[in-house]
Amino acid sequence: MVSCPGCIRCLICFQSLYFVVTANLAFFTSVLGETRDFQVEFGHDDAFATTAGAVSSAPDALNQDKLALVDMQREPAEIFDDAINPYDGSEIIIDPPQELTSNPTVFWDGIIKGVGQEFDNVKDFRAQLCKYAIGKGFVYRFIKNETTRVTVKCVGDGCTWRLHASESSRNKKFVIKKMTDEHTCGGEGGEGQRRATRQWLTTIIKEKLRENSSLKPKDLVKEIYEEYGVLLTYSQVWRGREVAQKEMFHVMRETFGHLPWYRDRLFQTNPGSSLELSQTADTRRVFFAFHASLHGFANGCKPLLFLDKVPLKATNEYKLLVAAAVDADDGIFPVAFNAVEDDNYDSWVWFLMQLRMALQYHNYAFNSMTFLSNGQKGLDAAVPHVFEDSHHAFCLHHIMEEFKGELRKGPWSQQIRDAMVEDFTRAAQACSIDEFNASIESIRNISTEAADWIIASKPEHWSDAFFTGCRYDHFSSNIVDAFNNWIPTKKEGSMVLMIDSLRIKITEVMEARREACKSWEGPLTPSMDYKAQDELSKAGKLTVLCSSETVFEVRGNGIFVVNLANWECSCRRWQLSGLPCMHAVAVFNRIGRSFYDYCSKYFRIESYHLTYSGTIFPIPDMDTFDFSAGATIPPPKPRTSDKPRRKRFNPNKVTTLIRLCSRCKQAGHNKATCEALL
Question: Which contacts of 633-640 are long-range, i.e. CB under 8 A and separated by 24 or more positions?
Fold first, then answer.
């Protein structure tokens, strides 16, 4: 291959790549069948330069006669912003205007939101920053550009726009720490020359090649300028097209070679597992769940699932979604994973539908299931769409961070902001509507806008006073941060290697926990027994009055009614946590009942054993399969030896230089063939 001018590094020439892929599509169909639905492995990140025991019995949530402060018809909005967008943070767009959807950049100028915004990794941050600058129409330059911190500023003379982001030590995500969101150079009018990165260019070219694989570089130069306002040279687009074709070839190879091979081996060695592949023109998805994980959740875990995205460190070509549960000792337990092109409404619906079918195969009863997520990226609509009778709780940590961000815009001191955050926490943990209203009223005395923001953030999804499901004292979905280091960085480039690394890690965790629980004693797991002892210590000074054989009145700081037949207390702590509250403990001490007889089955050691009773078996052929070569894609047909390359010449070309023999000084031959007699 002759390197094109301006190449920055050696690349394998794929000039004939699309002709090979197109010529072999019929071959794939004939071998693999037309009706099979496959998912693709996403290319490298190369870029081109430039319950039974705890049933909730919440009061009628949002009873407007009792809840004078709550107006549930309102939608979340910023405290200091009058523009209310009910679909903010969601991928759901209701009938978008055609004139807006024709230009992608109109959606990019809001990608960067401000301080506290999180990204999967530094590559994800750079990619979103590039889109933001193109959408806004300004150029930036890097002050610091490292893997753990990035600082950029506008190139305009004296412009104050500046942004700093760095890696969070808590969850390893990339977070915006400082941002001056004001241009004084006048370059934010959308008219400035945009600056494209190689990752952005490769992504755009791949999207266009999927629509029309015969696009030439000159066509791409024109379309990119017309749609995005980015002016590129022919050689830049040519190199970007080569990288895009290479990545798409890698995707095709994984889809029709490696993943089907791994799925067959997984079904042979681990019957009952699930690995579903799906590919369309615009989407590429892989769902996988191991039999031991599905069996453990169906038989031993609480009916509670955490939904979130696992941040990947080395690739942005796909997103890894996860559904995880907690075992009887409150340990994180992975159930299923899904690799998708992006985390939006459609991808979450597909993931949840595959998860539902996998659980149905294991005879799981979908009774009183509760999901816990951040409620964004379409999750708020996807969960009730697939699991109609389920309960959906929003992550309190995520809402709290949004609330803190809104408070930073106000004039209050840090001490006052901390007091409002504490009141917000009490409102979330309040078991009654009166307690919730008291906390909100405390905030309203400081700021009416802040109280209205909380009311508009849908407290029926995060406050115990209104939430009708049972989340067993779990308020945050950040528990899935435990998966951050489960996948080695070098395995993220291959879908099969990533799945197998998760298989190995889950096997190690299950084996370690099986060994640890052998020394446990008593009916409850250690963490649940610790919580039980705390409730037992609070019941000593309470007075119990017997109303009937099952109904009791307990007096202390207030008057509470305990119903042993229904496992209920009017304080609602028993129903919400699954463990008897101190009022129920006082009744047990009065009538001589055992505390442990009234604990949920999901806290018992027997349930813990059932969770980890399954086994994940190894896949023996993993070390022999060559993942660097296509499994079913035939190589390009080489030139046959009986057809030598023809030497082309122009018979009409006029000779302008006459060479003479150095021996006889005549034309038509040289010294080696000279036959003149001298």
Answer: 633/20, 633/21, 633/24, 633/252, 633/253, 633/256, 633/257, 634/24, 634/27, 636/16, 636/20
Q: Which of 313, 368, 371, 332 is nearest to 612 (CA)?
A: 332
Residue 277's DSSP bridge partners are: 286
Q: Residue 362's Cα: distance from chain center in Å?
A: 26
For 200-219, write each residue's pLDDT tens digit.
Answer: 888 888 778 777 877 888 88
Concatenated DSSP letters for 28-97?
A: HHHHH-TT-----------------S-------TT-TTT-SS--TT-----TT-----TTTT-S--SS--
Closest CA to 78 of 476, 407, 411, 413: 407
Which three-class secondary structure state does DSSP give residue 278?
Answer: strand
User: Do residues 285 and 278 touch, judged by C-beta distance below 8 A?
Assistant: yes
CB atoms within 10 A of CB 373: 25
Question: Quick one: CA dihedral 233, 236, 239, 242, positive or negative?
Answer: negative
**d(C-alpha 458, C-alpha 387), whole Å:** 20
For the question of whether the overall pTM of this predicted structure is more than 0.85, the answer is: no
- Cα–Cα distance, 213 to 18 (Å, whole number): 7
The answer to whether the Cα torsion of 12, 17, 20, 26 is positive or negative is positive
Structure tokens at 434: 């009166």
Is residue 91 within 8 Å of residue 111, measured between CB atoms?
no
Q: Find how far residue 231's CA is from the centre of its chain.
A: 32
- C-beta of residue 587 within 8 angstroms of C-beta of residue 552: yes
Burial of 263 (0-12, 13-18, 19+ CB in 10 A): buried
Return all residues near 42 (Cβ < 8 A) that are at least 6 apart.
251, 284, 315, 317, 318, 339, 341, 495
DSSP 3-state of 306: strand
pLDDT, tens digit (0-9, with 9 covering 90-100), for 355-404: 999 999 988 888 788 999 988 888 889 999 999 889 999 998 889 888 98
Compute the distance between CA of residue 425 and CA of residue 603 in angstroms, rounded to an integer. 26
Q: How far apart are CA 332 and CA 506, in angstroms?
A: 11
